């Protein structure tokens, strides 16, 4: 039987029982067993991709330099390669899969893929990180200026150089669909 103080400490740390960590990802709870599913040294990005199978985020640099692994943790964009999975237990996590195609940011990135208009997508490797970062930015600031968009996306790298198209997609998502236009 688990002692009451151990149960309270586990609950405070986002764990239901000692040795069990609960990650709330995209609205679903995942109970992960320490030593089997999760270890103190594992990054959140690793656990999301390799344990939970959420492969939308990319683990590119593994040192917080590119933004490809960005997720939303309690409403804030964070680099999952630098966040310990055990530290994320008990918090709300949103990945690119949790946004869905109806999200205005996702729709704006797709719409900004038209040739000749400055695409927001080329190879696509950086796209999930930019989309999630943009979603967090617009949740904080629904109508950012172009300068605020540039600053908000500043930690993300696009090797293909699609920065103008990416910024345009974010400003379009902030403006919302025109009258009579589908979101």
Question: What's a quick, concise take on this entry?
Answer:
This protein is of the alpha+beta class and 183 residues long. It contains 8 helices and 5 strands; from the N terminus they run αββαββαβααααα.
Annotate the secondary structure layout.
Layout: H1 4-12, E1 20-25, E2 28-33, H2 44-51, E3 70-73, E4 76-79, H3 85-88, E5 92-94, H4 96-99, H5 104-111, H6 127-140, H7 146-152, H8 163-175
Parallel strand pairs: 1-5
Antiparallel strand pairs: 1-2, 3-4, 3-5
Helix pairs in contact: 5-8, 6-8
Please characterize this protein's 3D structure:
The protein is α+β, with helices and mostly antiparallel strands. It folds into two domains: 4-97, Beta-grasp domain (Ubiquitin-like (UB roll)), CATH 3.10.20.30; 100-175, [2Fe-2S]-binding domain (DNA polymerase, domain 1, Orthogonal Bundle). It contains eight helices and five strands. A five-stranded mixed sheet has the order 2-1-5-3-4. The longest helix is centred in the C-terminal third of the chain and has 14 residues, at 127-140. It is elongated.
Order of helices and strands: HEEHEEHEHHHHH
End-to-end separation: 53 Å
Number-wise, the strands total 5
Please bin the fraction of helical residues: 25-40%
Give a quick account of the main beta sheet: strands, pairing sense, barrel closure.
5 strands, mixed
Average per-residue pLDDT, rounded, comes to 88
Structural class of the helices, strands and pairings? Answer: alpha+beta
Gross morphology: elongated
Low-confidence segments, given as residue ranges, are 1-10, 178-183
State the fourth-level CATH superfamily of the largest domain: Beta-grasp domain
**Share of residues in strands:** 5-15%
Biggest sheet strand order reads 2-1-5-3-4
Count of separate DSSP helical elements: 8
Briefly, what CATH class of the largest domain?
A: Alpha Beta
* Overall domain count: 2
Radius of gyration: 18 Å
Enter the CATH topology name of the largest domain.
Ubiquitin-like (UB roll)
CATH-level-2 architecture of the largest domain: Roll
């Amino acid at each position: 039987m688990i002692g009451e103080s151990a149960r309270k400490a586990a609950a405070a740390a986002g764990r239901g029982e000692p040795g069990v960590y609960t990650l709330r990802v995209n609205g679903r709870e995942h109970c992960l067993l320490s030593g089997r599913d999760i270890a103190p040294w594992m990054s959140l990005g690793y656990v999301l991709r390799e344990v939970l199978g959420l492969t939308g985020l990319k683990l590119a640099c593994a040192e917080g330099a590119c933004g490809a692994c960005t997720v939303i943790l309690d409403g804030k964009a964070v680099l999952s390669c630098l966040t310990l999975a055990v530290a994320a237990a008990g918090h709300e996590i949103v990945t690119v899969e949790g946004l869905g195609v109806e999200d205005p940011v996702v729709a704006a990135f797709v719409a900004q893929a038209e040739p000749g208009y400055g695409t927001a997508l080329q190879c696509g490797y950086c796209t999930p990180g930019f989309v999630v970062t943009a979603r967090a930015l617009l949740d904080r600031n629904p109508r950012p200026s172009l300068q605020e968009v540039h600053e908000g996306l500043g930690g993300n790298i696009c090797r293909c150089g699609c920065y103008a198209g990416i910024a345009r997609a974010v400003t379009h998502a902030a403006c919302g669909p025109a009258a009579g236009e589908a979101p």
